[in-house]
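To: structure desk
From: M.T.
Subject: fold request, one chain
Message: Could you run this one when you get a chance? Sequence is below, nothing fancy, just the single chain.
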Amino acid sequence: MKKKITNIFFLSLLMISVQAFAQDTLVGWTFPSTSADSLADFSAGTLNTSRYLSCQYGTYGFPSYHSIAIDYTTNGSGGSPDKCAKAIGWNDCVDSSYWMIKFKTTGYGNMKLYSKMQGGGSNPGPRDFKVQYKLPGSTFPWVDLAGGTIVCANDWTTGVIDGIDIPAECNNLSGQISIRWLLTSNLDINGNSLLSSGICKFDDIIITAVAQSGVERNDFGTFASIYPNPNHGSFTIDNIRDVKQIIIYDITSKCVYDREITFDNKVSFSNFNKGL
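Reply: Done. Structure tokens follow.
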């Protein structure tokens, strides 16, 4: 497609939002065989490169608190050579033992959580968990995440968290958000009492998010700021340089907006059908 002499600025809309602002991996642990350890395998830029996974019992600072050893030599959800995190010693630890991650959300929002758990095989591990989050600071309590109940089995498809929302109060914070997977019963995956040998495997822990900066480079090497980001059909295009006209097409390639640049380029599609 030829560029017009007037330097037209093209936007493409998908589900009444700007397509460029897709979910990015904010932080993630997938335990590849080349670096199977507690450190994060993915980070948005350098924001969360030093974050790590832990397994713990109790509350830090209390006499009963202790770390639970994690093994990274067992095959994970992807099969060999993919690895996972594995821990034992979950018996008699209801509401006390948990997996935990911490991460920063500076510049990001609209976060979603993914994870996979397996409850062992010949050494059946814990069946029941729930996911909780906590804001930075010692005064904030642990809060249950909606949709965060987990029932594990001896497979990688049952105990799955598949893109549940992390609340908006966690958006764009410079302090560390905490998320934990807390044991909620003393039953193994077969419904029997947990033994000390019971194994819990953990893999593919991913937090996705949307960058909130709203700044993207266009086809002509100039910048435009689009906000709010994300939006619900109404947004402003600002700081446009060397652009004379704004043309916006929907997902079907139909032109839905065609205007010369004005002082206030506020665009609203709130009355359009969802998805156009």
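Reply (cont.): Residues 111 and 166 are 5 Å apart (CA to CA). Let me know if you need anything else for the meeting.
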